[in-house]
Specification:
The complex is a heterodimer of chains A (292) and B (315). Chain A is mostly helical and 292 residues long. Helices cover 73% and strands 0% of the residues of chain A. Chain B is flat and about 75 Å long. Classes of the chains: A mainly alpha (292), B mainly alpha (315).
């Protein structure tokens, strides 16, 4: 199988085949070295997480020490009795539900800003962006006091609402740029056929921008999953999220390196998977849709 | 884009009279899908800030509930004269500027390396992106415990490998605390800059560059006079978006140094004033100061984004 795949590739070499000129080879090697250097700390984290505590804490590092899953077992509470599952589940709930809420609010808004734009639609769009530039700390205290006042401290819904507001501007910008690519003719055809607004949205527009919706969701998911400051200030034991658990876990555990690494791997895994899946659309999302 | 937008907006320019009522109804139908998001955002982000603004003029410490009252500019005076807060303002600027500058330059070099076709380019790109996808707290823990640790961290381990038993074994975090935080953030943010700049590089007009090459321009001339000007907007966008995020950084400072050894930035200091000292008035005043700083950056950011935006509209 590999042989048949390799054969045509060697038969039709690229225009500038690597290895033909020495400068090109050097640049290729350099690119590989830089890539490896950047991924190395992550690989180191994974390797350390698979070592026993004794092998993890040696100097010089033991590369070929026997692999074990003890670090993961410890993280999941085999030794300490504190299970990370509630925190992981809270993170999942907060991220998924806030992403759903974001989409529910952002898709119609993006529609109003792109397909049949309201007047001054650019001003509205920039208003959305400007809220993203308001530092989190600037609203933290009133949010805390309000949460305290209405009895929503340590409540996962408080985080869901805040994460929704945190990701909504990004989602509106991203969805606007995806919706702007829907051809007008399609929409006109739908309105001639007598489709209502909601029906056009549901049956024509949404299916066409499904890949965009998927990318937007993944980015919102990542940002919610990563968030620490709100979660730390507004939650305690019940609604604690994975990042908060991670910080508390280290202080109470002292320095069990393999376990800490295992914990970091587990908490990062959903984001790594989501990020690799959304690789191509990541740029567009992160640059708020300004770059295609 | 522009041709697509014009016919869509034209109904709003109908003549007045009978059409006016119809147009108003149409306007509301257009606005309706926008309103939930807009109202939600105003309530959840703008109102709390108004709250912060009000509290910043109040004397309010949760430890002294009887002394709550109007304070005028006292909190601001304390924020700007207090050594800790002033230091944290400077730390925020140093931290943000150095992380953004280094990661933009590194990101540019790497983007240029990845802009060529070579074997395994996809793999290298994926490896490069990975640091950005590690959860920030986990990344900070990784740097603090697995890399910087003086006894069993990777860095000192590598020194032992190279120089043997008597290798220098510096305690990275206590000897160079701010640099330690900066290095971990540069590692996380370089991929972000690289992604944006790579998108910029790949959108550059190839035919023009081909023509320049045929006219006998050297690679450096092409880079200096064609690639770099084309990249300018992307460089600006990366730097400004990066600044907005890094000014607000909390995770790395909180985890790696707990704000000790002169690494406390404004978000961390505000967190402490609020969380540990319970001085709500002073925390709010410091929050307002951060907003003022951010508005200055944001003005430039909005201008850059809107120029990219106009370009998209003209396309």
């Amino acid at each position: 199988m590999t042989a048949t795949l390799e054969a045509p590739r060697t038969a039709a070499p690229p225009v500038n085949p690597p290895g033909r000129n020495p400068a090109g080879t050097l640049l290729t090697i350099l690119a590989w070295v830089v890539g490896v250097l950047f991924v190395l700390p992550v690989l180191w984290m994974v390797l350390t997480s698979l070592h026993s505590e004794a092998d993890a804490a040696t100097n010089p590092p033991s590369l070929f020490a026997p692999l074990t899953l003890d670090g993961y077992a410890n993280f999941f509470g085999a030794q300490t009795g504190t299970s990370p599952w509630p925190a992981l589940l809270n993170s999942l709930t907060a991220s998924v539900l806030s992403t759903a809420l974001v989409l529910l609010l952002a898709i119609p808004a993006a529609y109003a800003l792109s397909i049949r734009p309201v007047r001054k639609w650019t001003d509205v769009l920039f208003f959305f962006l400007s809220t993203k530039m308001l530092p989190v700390v600037a609203g933290l205290l009133p949010v805390y006091l309000i949460a305290q006042g209405i009895g929503m401290l340590d409540n996962i819904w408080m985080l869901i609402i805040l994460y929704t507001s945190m990701n909504l501007p990004i989602a509106v910008w991203m969805m606007r740029s995806f919706l702007a690519e829907v051809p007008v003719e399609v929409l006109e055809a739908a309105s001639i056929d007598g489709c209502s607004l909601t029906r056009t949205l549901r049956t024509v527009v949404v299916p066409m921008v499904l890949p965009g919706i998927a990318a937007t969701s993944l980015i919102c998911f990542i940002f919610s999953w990563n968030e620490l400051l709100f979660a730390r200030v507004l939650t305690a034991t019940v609604a604690q999220t994975a990042p908060v658990f991670l910080t508390g876990f280290v202080t109470s555990q002292g320095l069990f390196l393999a376990t800490v690494c295992a914990a970091s791997v587990v908490v990062s895994l959903p984001v790594l998977i989501a990020g690799f899946a959304a690789q191509d659309k990541l740029v567009q999302g992160l640059s708020l849709g300004a770059i295609k | 884009m522009s041709t697509a937008v014009e016919p869509r907006t034209s109904p709003t320019q109908q003549p007045p009279g009978e059409g006016a009522a119809l147009r108003r109804a149409g306007d509301w139908a257009r606005r309706a899908p926008l309103l939930p998001a807009l109202i939600f955002l105003i309530i959840v982000t703008q109102l709390p800030f108004v709250g912060t603004l009000v509290i910043s003029f109040m004397n309010w410490n949760a430890y002294y509930p009887d002394e709550v009252g109007f304070a005028g500019f006292d909190n601001y005076r304390r924020v700007l004269t207090d050594v800790t807060t002033r230091d944290s303002i400077i730390t925020t600027i140093v931290l943000t500027v150095s992380v953004v500058l280094v990661s933009v330059v590194l990101g540019l070099v790497i983007a240029l390396l990845l802009d060529r076709t070579f074997r395994g380019r996809g793999i290298v790109r994926t490896m490069m992106i990975t640091p950005f996808l590690v959860v920030p707290v986990a990344a900070a823990l990784l740097w603090k415990h697995a890399l910087y640790n003086p006894e069993y961290g990777l860095f000192n381990g590598v020194l032992t490998w190279i120089f043997g038993e008597n290798a220098p074994q510096p305690d990275w975090i206590s000897t160079m605390p701010l640099t330690a935080v900066v290095a971990s953030l540069v590692w996380q943010w370089t991929p972000f800059m690289m992604l944006i700049l790579l998108a910029g590089l790949q959108s550059k007009p190839l035919d023009v560059i081909e023509a320049a090459r045929i006219d006998g321009c050297s690679s450096w001339q092409i880079f200096r006079h064609m690639t770099l000007p084309h990249l300018r907007q992307y460089l600006e966008l990366g730097a400004l978006l990066g600044s907005i995020y890094i000014v607000q950084n909390f995770d790395a400072v909180f985890t790696i140094t707990s704000g000790g050894l002169g690494t406390a930035n404004l978000p961390y200091t505000i967190y402490q004033i609020f969380y540990n000292a319970h001085d709500f008035g002073r925390a709010s005043a410091a929050g307002v100061v951060v907003v003022i700083g951010t508005i200055i950056i944001a003005t430039f950011a909005l201008r850059t984004v809107s120029s990219l935006f106009r370009e998209e509209g003209a396309r």
